[in-house]
Amino acid sequence: MKASTIPQIQQASTADKLELIDDLWASIPPSEVAPLDSHLAELDKRLKAYAENPNGALDADSARARLRKITGL
Question: What DSSP assignment string belongs to 37-54?
Answer without folding.
Answer: HHHHHHHHHHHHHHHH-G
